Amino acid sequence: MTIFRWIIGVLAALLAAGSLLSFVLFIAFDIERWLKRARTLRHGVYMALLLWFNVEVWGQVLWALFHW
């Protein structure tokens, strides 16, 4: 499970960095494409974190059911 947490953490960090960079480029050059890309990457961060949360919760549920 630790490997999964690291993978999700690195993926979320890369997506967040890309989103931040895209937003900075939008602020600097006022090109709407960068704002759309920043929003898309931000949604990717949300999806990665929700995936991590679901795997953690359902993993615990399955673990409890299996060892009951």
Whole-number average pLDDT?
Answer: 97
How many extended strands? 0
Q: Which structural category fits the helices and strands?
A: mainly alpha
Sheet with the most strands?
none
Provide the β-strand percentage band.
under 5%
Radius of gyration: 17 Å
Overall 3D form:
elongated
Helicity level = over 70%
Overview of the molecule:
This protein starts with a helix and ends with a helix. The protein has helices at residues 2-29, 32-66. The relative contact order is 0.14. Helix 1 packs antiparallel against helix 2. It has 68 residues and is mainly alpha-helical. The chain has two helices and no strands. It is elongated, with a radius of gyration of 17 Å. The model has no long low-confidence stretch (mean pLDDT 97).
List keywords for this structure.
single chain, 68 residues, mainly alpha, 2 helices, 93% helix, 0% strand
